[in-house]
Task: inverse folding
């Protein structure tokens, strides 16, 4: 049977991809971010997963607002990397595993998730920005992707609880797949940021770290928050955190964090976290104890 061996939460800021393509990994402004990905890339190189299930959102690249699905799963042997205005990126097309994708799609529908299925559509920076920092890609990617797009742009959005349940359903789907595969779950987006309106440039570091604590130890509390709660605490675009909840839902009750890199140098709190199944040392858990703020700075 297939097995989920770990999970990753990562920002998907488009400028990460631009800086990567321009070879700016050693620039002082970018090195803290790129260096933060190296331990996770090393973990992936050692574990050699066969597939990554990627929860991401499409930024009106493949789907537009006249028909924007709540949940969409890609099925195909290859997906092109989208040209988002800066030209085609020097990356190979993203590989897929059709048998695994079809199995997960069928399992999710039978689990009462009404999916949109897409084929041969380009995948934008929601997935393609962090992917080359995680996996080598010359001449090709070492494994396949199961891309699952979640609507975090056009209201009504799926609730935090629904995304968490989606992750749980994905876990059931993966674990019922008959082939002996190693799978890693990736949730993208956030954390706190707002890129428009009166609060442009807003961040909330206290909330970011509280979110990470709750995600690890008490994710059910996060599922009780409304979209407005996420927006007040972390800015309009921080609602992307519901995609991290989908990732968390695919993991067991107890997880331990192997790596965290938090870098706030732009309008987005660019964050990377790596988790495995297991018990966090008691002193580590106690050191992170706090509570959700009642409100955030407006």
Result:
């Amino acid at each position: 049977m297939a097995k989920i061996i770990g999970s990753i939460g990562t920002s998907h800021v488009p400028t990460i991809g631009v800086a990567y393509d321009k070879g700016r990994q050693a620039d002082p402004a970018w090195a803290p971010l790129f260096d933060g990905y190296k331990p996770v890339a090393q973990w992936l190189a050692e574990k050699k997963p066969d597939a990554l299930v990627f929860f991401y959102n499409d930024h009106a690249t493949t789907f537009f607002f006249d028909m924007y699905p709540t949940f969409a799963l890609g099925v195909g042997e290859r997906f092109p990397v989208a040209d988002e205005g800066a030209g085609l990126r020097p990356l190979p097309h993203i590989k897929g595993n059709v048998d695994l994708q079809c199995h997960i799609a069928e399992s999710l529908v039978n689990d009462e998730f009404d999916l949109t299925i897409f084929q041969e559509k380009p995948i934008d920076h929601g997935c393609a920005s962090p992917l080359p920092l995680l996996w080598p890609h010359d001449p090709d990617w070492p494994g396949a992707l199961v891309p699952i797009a979640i609507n975090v742009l056009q209201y009504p959005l799926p609730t935090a609880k629904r995304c968490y349940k989606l992750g749980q359903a994905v876990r059931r789907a993966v674990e019922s797949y008959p082939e002996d595969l190693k799978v890693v779950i990736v949730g993208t987006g956030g954390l706190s940021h707002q890129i428009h309106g009166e609060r442009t440039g807003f961040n909330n570091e206290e909330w970011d770290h509280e979110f990470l604590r709750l995600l690890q130890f008490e994710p059910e509390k996060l599922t009780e928050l409304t979209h407005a709660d996420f927006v007040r605490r972390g800015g309009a675009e921080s609602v992307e955190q519901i995609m991290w909840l989908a990732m968390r839902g695919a993991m067991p009750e107890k997880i331990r964090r192997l790596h965290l890199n938090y870098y706030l140098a732009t309008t987005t709190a660019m964050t990377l976290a790596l988790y495995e199944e297991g018990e966090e040392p008691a002193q580590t858990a106690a050191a992170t104890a706090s509570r959700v703020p009642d409100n955030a700075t407006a």
Remarks:
- The longest helix spans residues 31-47.
